[in-house]
Amino acid sequence: MTRLLAKCRARFPTFELDVELDLPIEGVTALFGPSGSGKSTLLRLIAGLDRVPGNHIVVEDEVWQDDARGIFVPPHRRSIGFVFQETYLFPHLSVAANIAYGLKRSRRRKQRFSLDQVVDILDLGGLLNRAPNGLSGGERQRVAIARAVLTSPRLLLMDEPLSSLDADRKAEILPFIERLGHDLGVPILYVSHAIEEVMRLASTLALIAKGRIIATGPIEEVTSRLDLHPYTGRLDAGAVLRSTVRAHDHARGITRLAFRGGELIIPEIDSTVGSAINVRIRSRDVSLSLEAPKRTSILNILPGRVVQIADGDGPQAHVLLDIGSPLWARITKLSVRELALAPGVPIFALIKAVAVDRRSLGRPTAMDTALDRN
Amino acid sequence: MSGIELGPVWLSVRLAATTVLVLLVLATPLAWWLAHTRARGAVVVESLVALPLVLPPTVLGFYLLVLLGQGGPIGAFWVSVTGSTLTFSFTGLVFASVLYSLPFAVQPLQVAFEANGRGPVEAAYTLGAGPLDAFLTVASPMALRGYLTAIVLCFAHTLGEFGVVLMVGGNIPGETKVIAIAVYEHVETLDYAAAHTLSAGLLVFSFVVLMLVYALNRRNPIRVMTGARR
């Protein structure tokens, strides 16, 4: 597997960035942290848009910066795509010319997609002759993504690409990014402070706060660590199941997802069979039962065992389960006592199918809004 | 003397056009640097560039005369290289005009570059464009309004220049006798009819050019080329 190694230090009046990153270059890697934690700064350093002496950045076999050896590859020679929050489309060029701008300048690279393909994937057919200034926010961001993808980058860097869009526009663009990163094999480094976006998109998660990397790893591991919950979203976080679409059952209106450890049934979604998706299961939506209930409306009854029990606020407890993948349940301390739950106890996790409504994913929760204000 | 003397008119236009060309080359990097630098010395440079706006043309002209004269550092160097003097010559006038009109080129460009920010150029870098490529294909077309304003203002301002020309260039027909000087001379010799012809011509020309620019700016700030080219 190819990796991105970055040792970056940068001093600013208000904070200091000091990170050592070692991330896989595949799927979607999220760099997640509150506003002002240094994640965008780090992304700009990786892109070479800012240069701080002494930093060290290596991608696969290419050294992008190593000042000890006098190496600094300028951004236009790095094989990157960069999607900015503000899009920075060129207002004097049409959408078509904007998209073609990077393509013309990356002819020497191996082209992974044709212009027509990308126009098709991002559904830009009707916009090609328009001027960027006449587009909606969501359309602008789709054009910006197309423009970056067409350079066939080794790494696509995305700096809060959705944070200036409303919930509906976000929901419109998330599936495109999901497809690029997971199905079409464009490795993405995605900077965001919205946990919903991260949980939906990321296969790997790097947590950053106050200029330091706090944890790095597969998303289901990082989000299942209780000690990281102050960063990943306090009590409501829950867990992420990385899964693939196994089958659609149109007659019954459901979709079956395969994850490591079992199958999850959710209300039917519009996604091709075999495509990878992240499913977020909130801890408050998981109930526990010592036996498999019969004649119940709950479609997902997943066998597993208790791993850890942690006290939450007041009468609540957080129970970490192993159902093949980590899963959190938030129940009362009373239930913990009545069921005599303890590490190792076999258990059934019950999840209502409608609790996993993917259409709601990508919409900000009250918690995201709270993080925004930080 | 014939009805309309074209000599000063032609000379003025030639001077203004040359000045504009030189200024575009000089002011573009200067304005770009001023728009993006965080260096402390920028304030000093900015003030120097703006000096011709506040100095009386005679003061500027006086120092130029000293600098460009045969005893001055630039003038002496010029004589040693080309064998001819800078003062009281067309080349000397171009020198003077460039300095005199510098703020009219730098300021509109700087404002345009600042308004567009670094973002679009950085986007161009990440799309594989080198610094010059990004400047030519993104930064300068986006600053088109600034360029139009700079060109017109510099052209008109050079046409209207009087004090500096008188100090540095004198009144040599075909070499330094521009419209403004010719008008002054006509008035001095009480040839009001000739002064009138030149003055009215300059007035109408300046008005029409300014109006054209403002109309253009108002209607169509940035031209978008639709359809993929090539």
Q: What's this model, at a glance?
A:
The complex is a heterodimer of chains A (374) and B (230). Chain A is 23% helix and 34% strand.
Summarize the helices and strands and which ones pair or pack.
The complex is a heterodimer of chains A (374) and B (230).
Chain A: E1 3-11, E2 16-24, E3 28-32, H1 39-47, E4 56-59, E5 62-66, E6 71-72, E7 80-83, H2 95-104, H3 115-121, H4 137-149, E8 155-159, H5 167-183, E9 188-192, H6 195-201, E10 204-209, E11 212-218, H7 219-224, H8 229-232, E12 239-249, E13 254-259, E14 262-267, E15 276-281, E16 286-289, E17 300-311, E18 316-322, E19 326-332, H9 333-338, E20 346-351, H10 366-373
Helix pairs in contact in A: 2-4, 4-5
Chain B: H1 6-36, H2 42-54, H3 57-68, H4 73-82, H5 90-116, H6 119-126, H7 131-142, H8 144-159, H9 163-168, H10 179-188, H11 192-219
Task: Describe the protein.
The complex is a heterodimer of chains A (374) and B (230). Chain A contains 10 helices and 20 strands. In chain A, helix 2 (95-104) runs parallel beside helix 4 (137-149). Chain A folds into 2 domains: 3-232, P-loop containing nucleotide triphosphate hydrolases (Rossmann fold); 240-373, RNA polymerase II/Efflux pump adaptor protein, barrel-sandwich hybrid domain (OB fold (Dihydrolipoamide Acetyltransferase, E2P), Beta Barrel). Chain A has a 6-stranded mixed beta sheet with strand order 7-8-9-3-10-11, with helices on both faces. A 5-stranded antiparallel beta sheet of chain A has the order 2-1-4-5-6, with helices on one face. In chain A, strands 16-20-17-18-19 form a 5-stranded antiparallel beta sheet. By secondary structure, chain A is an alpha+beta fold. Helices cover 23% and strands 34% of the residues of chain A. Chain A has helices spanning 39-47, 95-104, 115-121, 137-149, 167-183, 195-201, 219-224, 229-232, 333-338, 366-373, and strands spanning 3-11, 16-24, 28-32, 56-59, 62-66, 71-72, 80-83, 155-159, 188-192, 204-209, 212-218, 239-249, 254-259, 262-267, 276-281, 286-289, 300-311, 316-322, 326-332, 346-351. In chain A, strand 8 (155-159), helix 5 and strand 9 (188-192) form a beta-alpha-beta unit. Chain B is an all-alpha fold and 230 residues long. Chain B has a single domain, classed as MetI-like (MetI-like fold, Orthogonal Bundle). Chain B has 11 helices and no strands. Chain B has helices at residues 6-36, 42-54, 57-68, 73-82, 90-116, 119-126, 131-142, 144-159, 163-168, 179-188, 192-219. In chain B, helix 1 packs across helix 8. The longest helix of chain B is centred in the first third of the chain and has 31 residues, at 6-36. Chain B is globular. At the A-B interface, strand 7 and helix 2 of A face helix 6 and helix 7 of B.
